[in-house]
Amino acid sequence: MKQVDLFEAHAGKHTLQGGVETDAAHRERIDDLAQRVERHRALYYAGNPEISDAAYDAIEDELRALSPTHPVLARVGSASLVTEWEKARHEIPMGSLNKVVNEDELRAWVARCEELLAKEAHSPVERELFVAEKLDGISIEVLYKDGKLVDAITRGDGEWGERITANVARMKGVPARIRERGHLSVRGEIILRLSDMKRHFPGVTSPRNMAAGLSKRFDGQGAEHCTVLFYDVAEHAEIPTCRKRFDWLRELGFGTPQAGHSTLDDVIELYRNYASGRRAALDYEIDGLVVYVDSLHVQTLLGDLNRRPRGAVAFKFASPAKVSKVLSVLWDTGPSGRVTPVAIVEPVELAGAMVQRASLHNAAHVRSLGIGVGDEVLVSRRNDVIPYVEEVVEKRGTSAQPPTTCSVCGASLVTEGEYILCRNNSCRALIEGRIHNWIDAIGALEWGDKLIEQLVAAGLVREPLDLYNLQVKDIAGLERRGEKIAKKCLDQIKNRLPLTLPVFLTALGIEGFALQTARLLVSAGYGTLDKIRTAKEAELAVIPGLGTIKAANIVRGLAARKDEIDRLIAAGIEPVTLAAEGPLASLTFCFTGSGTRPRGELTQLVESNGGRVLGSVTKELNYLILADPSSASSKAEKARKYGTKLITEEQLEQLIEERRNAAGNEG
Ligand SMILES: NC(=O)c1ccc[n+]([C@@H]2O[C@H](COP(=O)([O-])OP(=O)(O)OC[C@H]3O[C@@H](n4cnc5c(N)ncnc54)[C@H](O)[C@@H]3O)[C@@H](O)[C@H]2O)c1
Ligand SMILES: [Zn+2]
To answer: Is residue 381 lining ligand 1, measured as CB closer than 6 Å?
Structure first.
């Protein structure tokens, strides 16, 4: 979607709305969006938002994209201010800020300022900026007369606000007297510090909404826990810069958000800094940074539009989320049998990708959202993860109900806690899952998800043994596969043979039976497949680190796969007992970080040479294998402390080679 120019957006350059370009469908949508913007503003400024800020912003952004000049967008605050408080008029109207949500938009704003200032003598904007934290609270104007606090008025619609003087007078950071004479209007934000919220209002989750509520209580209760921080003073002509303005506010005894003079590059670095941790460490909530042209003279030259200065912007923290409509709710059966609800939505562009499918996590989430076909929902995509439905923004349809049968095989589903599952072992989704697990555990990198899907769909693979009976032509005959790939894939799985016992057990993909558990069993004396298969639940349960649940899963899982395992063994795919001899005999190894080869393959390498793989760094560990032996990670540090040797994968191979040769020479 095209980003609308910040300055001209409201100035009538774009003529979408009402013009010939607006088709009926758009007009309807525009009216609908505008109404919702107003409704949500009214709720929000009254302290009772129904939807999240991200959802609200998504609606407002969509309206701006469809109708940049819409009058609703030019307004500040809410026009329908219903209040029991006395209304009061601001002598100098209170405005808002235009926003940018990424570096490019910020740079564009600077460029635009330069363009507008082309004919004026001024220092480069990008070198003369001022930046302050953008407090997420309630705007307030506080008036002093001859050094005495006389009035405090909320922003309201910018012109008329509520006179909540009695409450503001009790808030922290609002001096009753200041040493400045004359008439003074200072502007700031009412916030509730997180520490105060925790102490005085346990259970409350939104400091902003709480602060809004407290500010407007008639009995004034709780107002003393709010804080006001200031960032502006109206019309104080002798102050030349934002920096001086903040200094001056502080000298008068007002608290301010953190702020400072800055260049454009520094602002961007600071923004990243805040986004990646500094923001989370604050004792109050901010929703971005405010970036100003430092010189107030230049700000005046730039002027403002719709009560939004051109010489400042809100540099908001991005929330990559958009509103879209639910077309259907699907229930996909996954490889473990778990049924995952997915919302199919009207395609929307999110963080550079078109999104049509969004996860609904599980049946419990579907229920708590109350989501249904036709609803408008907020879809997010954070750090490139799977798109996710955050909330229902506008309820339109009837809520979706979890299915009772599997969409893949039709079997009845079972409920387990928050999840529903297909337990049918011959369900195609589960077969794919098991094959996938096998391939993963043995470390056959050539094999992709798609190939497995194709083989299962073609009925060529139903269980792990089938993998070993595949012919080159079976794979080569599939769509978009050739002989070369086919050969590579088949060679790879055959090269992995024989499988060590822990790898074999892990490859079966039995619930709760990961590599660590398999190793635990082996080191507890269950060194052969036979021993493990005949073990009773009770005897496994007492192995330290196992417990009753895992023991039950193992016994049940092995029994359920009995025939499959028998067929594997009959075909010679038999796990090998760890070599008690071999070049690495009596040595222990542990892997950390990502290697160049899959963990399973490395484990196999160590174990087939008689070594033992440990899951963590302990005193008995001989070798820690990692990409960078000079690493300062906690695992590496610990290993050094124990005198463990730190080596790379290559050094591991050399070690095997050396020890093999040494043994050969001795023998
Ligand atoms: N959830 C909802 O239903 C809903 C509805 C309406 C609005 N909203 C939210 O309200 C916000 C929009 O409101 P807005 O028009 O007041 O704009 P804004 O709050 O995004 O930005 C302008 C305001 O920032 C404040 N501010 C904080 N620190 C500042 C500083 N250092 N310098 C200057 N100003 C500073 C001022 O009060 C100023 O008026 C959005 O975040 C939107 O998501 C939410
Ligand atoms: Zn099924």
So the answer is: no
CATH-assigned architecture of domain 1-74: Orthogonal Bundle (1.10)
Q: How far, in Å, from the CA of 328 to the mean position of ligand 2?
A: 20
Q: Which pLDDT score is estimated for 496?
A: 80
User: What's the N-to-C CA distance of the chain in angstroms?
Assistant: 74
> Regarding the domain delimited by 321-422, which CATH topology (the fold level of the hierarchy) does it fall under?
OB fold (Dihydrolipoamide Acetyltransferase, E2P) (2.40.50)
ipTM, two decimals: 0.94
Arithmetic mean of pLDDT, 336-363: 88
Q: What is the dihedral of CA 464, 468, 470, 471, to 10 degrees?
A: 170
Q: Is the CB of 96 under 6 A from ligand 1?
A: yes
Answer whether 90 contacts ligand 1 (Cβ < 6 A).
Answer: no
Three-state DSSP state, 35 = helix
Determine the CATH number of domain 588-666. 3.40.50.10190
**pLDDT higher than 60, residue 380:** yes
Residues 6+ apart with CB under 8 A from 287: 53, 134, 136, 314, 316, 317
Give residue-wise pLDDT tens across range 648-663.
999 999 999 998 887 7
* Domain covering 89-316 in this structure, CATH number: 3.30.470.30
Mean pLDDT of 132-136: 97
Q: What percent of the chain has pLDDT over 70?
A: 94
In the chain, DSSP finds a helix count (H) and a strand count (E) of 25, 24
Q: Which atom of ligand 1 is nearest to the CA of 287?
A: 41
Q: What is the mean pLDDT of the chain?
A: 88
Handedness of CA 8, 12, 13, 16 (dihedral sign): positive
Which one is the CATH code of 428-570: 3.40.50.720, 3.10.150.10, 3.30.420.40, 1.10.150.20? 1.10.150.20
Catalytic-residue membership of 134: yes
**Model pLDDT, residue 499:** 87
Q: Which entry of 2, 13, 87, 134 is annotated as an active-site residue?
A: 134
